Amino acid sequence: MITKTRCIPDGKKELKKLPVVMHTDAPYLYYPVTNARCPEGETCVRGGQFVKVGEVIGTRKGAFFEQPMHSTVSGEVVGYEKHVDQSGQLVDCLIIKNDFKYEVLETLTDRTEEEIEALTREELVQIVKDAGLVGLGGSAFPTYIKLATKHPIDVVLANGVECEPNLISDYALMMTKPKRVIDGLIYAMKAAGAKRGVIAIKKKYKEIKERLNFALNEYSGYDIQVVTVGNYYPQGWEILTIKDALGIKIPQKDLLAKHGVLNFNVSTLAGIEKAVRHRLPILERYISLSGDGIENKNFRARIGTLMSDLVELAGGYKDKEIPKVFILGGPMMGTNVTQDDIVMTHTTTSLIVQNQVELIEEPCVHCASCVYSCPVEIQPVQIMNAFKARDKDTIKMLEVDKCIECGLCSFVCPSKIHLTEYMRKAKSFAKK
Ligand code: SF4
Ligand code: SF4
Hints:
Elements (H helix, E strand, L loop, with lengths): L11 H6 L2 E4 L4 E5 L7 E4 L6 E2 L4 E6 L4 E5 L4 E10 L5 E9 L14 H6 L2 H10 L12 H5 L7 E5 L9 H8 L1 H15 L3 E7 L3 H11 L6 E7 L8 H9 L14 E5 H13 L5 E7 L6 E6 L4 H7 L10 E5 L6 E3 L12 E6 L13 H5 L6 H9 L3 H6 L10 H5 L6 H13 L1
Parallel strand pairs: 1-14, 9-10, 9-12, 10-11, 13-17
Antiparallel strand pairs: 2-8, 3-5, 4-7, 5-6, 7-8, 13-14, 15-16, 15-17
Helix pairs in contact: 3-6, 5-6, 6-9, 12-15
The chain binds iron/sulfur cluster (2 copies).
């Protein structure tokens, strides 16, 4: 039977009820010198040196940009160790021993309203660049590059849809700090020269809509609206959210800015607010631990914290005799990692710990559910077959590069075929 699936269990209801445990005082903080977008990097501090909160400790280098690394505590540089980063790779990390004084670099004083008002577009872009801000929804794309667009921008979209199951960090942010999101949106609008701002959230989050609209009463001089979009997956994918929230259809490979739109995750906008108002980089973020292999908990933790510390604080693993599967991020698009020795970075939102169960793939029953559910309208089953046959031309003809790795095809497959993994492999095979 052919089924088109768009609604998936989101696993957020129970997580949202849990209190947020503060853990901003880890004794050692770890800072990856490289990451998936920046394969090279170097530090600019020596062993034994004392650093302060917000101090630059190195630079990560990407293909066309550089990203400063900042200390999130004050303390002593004590060396390097390898740990797993957001991409699941083992990378060199600089270690800072926390002195628990949290002394902030003297130059990082708050800007006054007048100083913020007087900032030019170029200055705002430079502030965001200096803060090393990247897309916190998972893209990790440098935020200043988007803001510095030469295209005329009509509207900035604050994307608060957070479609992935088990993720609640954007939800927690909008519920607790709505004005930080709105201020960040206003600064992004000014940096991009946009007159209009739209905050997109899921229709079912009535409480967020109320909270944001209440906060917006204080911003009567701005054209900012809260718009709700459908509760289906993968709503939050920028092309779909822009279509549903703004009514603008953008072809998948087009630059959004060419259509007068910029899209930022709400946590990224809160990061812009922190950089502009407080001259600070991202120091902390919300993160959740979930899954049947662990006591579920929400944390607010400092960037650089080891996830294994959070696991310990959550009471360790349940059913210790059962091997665990770790997923960094959400269950649909997250990265599988083999251990919990993971450093929390700007883009770490969640660790899912599952008791391992044996999933045996069965033969395809040609139900076409994967094809009908695919949001970019490609044919996962045909691509898998072409990949198995190492038929590069067919893989390209079937447009595997359109795949956004949303995980829906794997989710709907009655034969438990991990189609998304085949899409990833087929994509990289087609590029060789
Ligand atoms: S993972 Fe790719 S192929 Fe599968 S449903 Fe999502 S977009 Fe389509
Ligand atoms: S791969 Fe799975 S979902 Fe797709 S047609 Fe075959 S059985 Fe159905």
